Write a sequence for this structure.
């Protein structure tokens, strides 16, 4: 196996001799500038979660990372990455390389012929940009990403910025996939990125790559821990947790009695900054109740990837360990609340345990009307997507954004203060659930679809 090379920036056909390999490696070693490679196949078997297309790499270490990730990385790190890597390829290259056809040395080695896909953008720092990359993190953890955020961003960005196109990708919970998707967007010439990070820390690499290409990144909903982030648009996420905790503080008396005051906390994913903020907000209200022994916390876990089935397993375990003696379930979102309720149903405890949620999904509202879930938190996604669209338009038009952010900033763990738009979340329970219809998050027909007419808190005549 060997790579197929050319000094031209296009798919190539000639096979390199070992001598030419060394020449190329030496060239890169002397002047390791930006260069390109092309991935012609995508697949987990390659260890490269990169979609087909041209990729630009501006540092040997990144080059090395992409090529040898999971396979020969450790070996290559011991000596010079390029020479060592190149030296290995002819002899024992793994499947990683099988589907990667290297196309080119560009800047450093003086290649010319620009016949490949565009890798640079005409917009600098977003000015004049009309090609917007929108990268969302998952679909399975919450219905919001596909039902609300995606369509709203696809609609509102071109509405606020005439002629804008949206390049949409979803990482399905994989931070590496998201990075590859962002790189593919940059390669295609997307010149502003809107990123809801799959991993708040790892996504800093996306911001770094974008910055190198003169592309501003707006962190959408989830903060990215990078000082180079241009903007952050979200909700007040500590407030989200406070609302959940306050609901428990206001209603626990309906559920607890002497010796029966046990609380479980099923938090979101630790790689999502929001999950930590929700937990922080909830604890600010719950800790005094725990300290006073009004509530006894018997279980407290973060849930990797916000995985809904894992939340069910967590709840089943907590029920078993506590012989079903649980009265309050702090659950970080509606998706996980749904599976926690399934665990309660199996023990005929649904409706007898206070269960929180978040996101005001259709399933969450229905569970509230059935009496199985106690509350949810409405986040009016139209405000979040709308603020993002306005920022995109302002960046592109080169107009002042201070009237959008109003001086608000958010601190990153890297010590930066990122200009921010932070919307206000709202508590929803059986008494005000109709607000989600007023705020256009869903229609009455959505709520009523497959909802039993006998649902405990369904107002008479509401579903016709
Ligand atoms: C969002 C929540 C969502 C969760 C899981 C968080 O970052 O803010 O709305 O429920 O991710 O997708």
């Amino acid at each position: 196996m060997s790579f197929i090379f050319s000094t031209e920036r296009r798919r190539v056909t000639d096979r390199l001799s070992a001598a030419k390999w060394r020449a190329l490696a030496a060239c890169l070693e002397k002047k390791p500038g930006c260069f390109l490679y092309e991935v012609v196949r995508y697949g987990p078997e390659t260890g490269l979660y990169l979609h087909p297309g041209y990729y630009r790499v501006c540092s040997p270490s990144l080059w090395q990372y992409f090529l040898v990730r999971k396979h020969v990385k450790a070996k290559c790190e011991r000596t010079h990455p390029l020479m060592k890597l190149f030296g290995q390829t002819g002899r024992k290259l793994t499947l990683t390389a099988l589907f990667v056809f290297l196309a080119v040395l560009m800047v450093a080695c003086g290649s010319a012929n620009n016949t490949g896909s565009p890798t640079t953008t005409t917009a600098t720092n977003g000015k004049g940009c009309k090609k917007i990359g929108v990268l969302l993190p998952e679909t399975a953890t919450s219905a919001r990403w596909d039902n609300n955020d995606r369509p709203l961003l696809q609609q509102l960005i071109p509405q606020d910025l005439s002629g804008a196109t949206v390049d949409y990708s979803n990482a399905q919970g994989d931070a590496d996939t998201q990075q590859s998707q962002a790189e593919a967007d940059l390669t295609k010439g997307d010149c502003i990125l809107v990123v809801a990070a799959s991993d708040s820390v790892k996504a800093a690499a996306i911001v770094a790559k974008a910055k190198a290409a003169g592309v501003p990144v707006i962190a959408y909903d989830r903060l990215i821990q990078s000082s180079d982030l241009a903007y952050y648009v979200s909700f007040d996420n500590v407030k989200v947790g406070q609302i959940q905790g306050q609901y428990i503080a206001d209603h626990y008396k309906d559920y607890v009695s002497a010796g029966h005051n046990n609380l479980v906390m099923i938090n979101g994913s630790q790689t999502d900054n929001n999950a930590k903020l929700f937990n922080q907000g909830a604890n600010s209200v719950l800790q005094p109740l725990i300290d006073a022994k009004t509530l006894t916390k018997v279980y407290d876990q973060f849930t990797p990837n916000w995985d809904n089935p894992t939340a069910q397993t967590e709840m089943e375990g907590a029920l078993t360990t506590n012989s079903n003696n649980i009265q309050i379930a702090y659950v970080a979102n509606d998706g996980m609340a749904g599976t926690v309720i399934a665990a309660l149903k199996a023990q005929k405890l649904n409706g007898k345990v206070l269960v929180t949620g978040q996101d005001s999904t259709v399933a969450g509202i229905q569970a509230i009307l059935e009496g199985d879930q106690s509350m949810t938190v409405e986040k009016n996604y139209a405000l979040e997507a709308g603020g993002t669209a306005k920022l995109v338009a302002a960046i592109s038009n080169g107009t002042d954004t201070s009237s959008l952010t109003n001086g608000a900033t958010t601190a990153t763990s890297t010590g930066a203060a990122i200009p921010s738009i932070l919307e206000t979340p709202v508590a929803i329970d059986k008494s005000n659930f109709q607000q989600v219809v007023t705020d256009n998050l869903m229609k009455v027909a959505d709520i009523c679809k497959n909802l039993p007419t006998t649902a405990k808190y369904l107002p008479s005549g509401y579903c016709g």
About this structure: Residues 273-291 form the longest helix (19 residues). Residues 138, 141-142, 144, 221-222, 268, 272, 274, 306, 333, 358-359 surround beta-D-glucopyranose (CB under 6 Å). The first strand starts at residue 35 and ends at 39.
